[in-house]
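## retry 2 of 3
previous attempt timed out at serialization; input unchanged, resubmitting
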Amino acid sequence: NCFDFFCVAITLIGFMAGGGGAASVFRILRLARIFRVVKKLTGLRMLFNTLIISLPGLLNIGALMFLLCFVYAILGMNLFGKVKFGENLNEDANFTNFGNSLLLLLRMVTGEAWNSVMYDCMIDTDCDSAADCARGECCGNDGAPLYFITFVILGTFITLNLLIAVVLDNFSNNKKEEGTNITDAHIEDFAQAWSKLDPHATGFIPCTRLVSLLKLAKTPLGVKGTRLSRLGILRFQKNLNLHVESNYLHYHDVLQAVTARAMGINTDALPHDVQIALETGKVKAKIEAEKKIQMNAKARGSTAPMLQITHGMTGADGEQLTIEQLYAVQRIQAAFRGRKARRESQVRAEEERAARSKAKAEMILSHVKNIFVEVEENERRRQGGALLGRRPGATDSAMVVLRDSAQGSEIEEPDNDSARRSPGSSI
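## retry succeeded, writing output
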């Protein structure tokens, strides 16, 4: 909002100033609105913050570089101030005065043609080698390589790399802080994940539902979108340092635990008074939440559930339980139940297999018995037919008699019809 006010104020001042040079300056300042993009782009914001954080270190290293250039500029004036100009040591780049020496050294820090300037400062032909030679006519100095090489090492390879090291160190620290920084968006996502497991907004969920909550919440407060094994989830819960005091977990307890883990804060290492303040706040929040649950449950027409919260849960020896111990016990029980269920299913499968085999054997046995019965009946019929057919030709003569009688009846029928048609002939 302050930045927007600054941009609007600059715009109004530019309009009121008219068309002069000052108005143009104010109009140019309106380009600062481009910095609004920094707030929206995470990577650009990280780089901008790195630049702001690095400014003090950059100023210190810049002062060190200026001191180095100051010393070498004075040395260069005394050593090479009268050297005869060459191709690279000329009117624009020389050691004749402090300003030119400082500018030349700043150019050499970037690594541009410093060796060529060194060779020009070592000239020993067509020059005056006397000690009282005129300016611009003297020969070079044999100490030029030592001067230039030490300056390049100290100025280019050390000082400039110090600048880069400061920026990279601040960038890595800023990136680490950005990665572990908990924003309002993270808290809102965690609250939405909690509402899915606590639709009545009681502020409590069962201890056994913590893993479901972590799988619904996105990183860094949860594990949604990551591929964690059961061992990884167990380690995640171990880093929460969350103690189990009842069969239900409160919202503030879980939120504080996951936030401390994401930001790398060890609550046990905090000062004693800070720990007492945190515990007092959590206890007050839980008491108020339990009272609210009781009031809502007693209200007429209320659908809020009455939670049976059991306090003072401890281990077998009275030690305080942690959430990872509860999860480990839950997984052991689930493994035992699964193994027992698999054994029972195997026993049932074997019994069903035996029953099917028995039914199949009985069906086959019944079919075989039916076949034997049919064979015996067929054998009896065959034996009975053999006894009836002992007299030879009897059956054939009977068949001949039957055929002759049938043919005789067919002959008699047309005679009867002819008798009916001509009654006079019978007379």
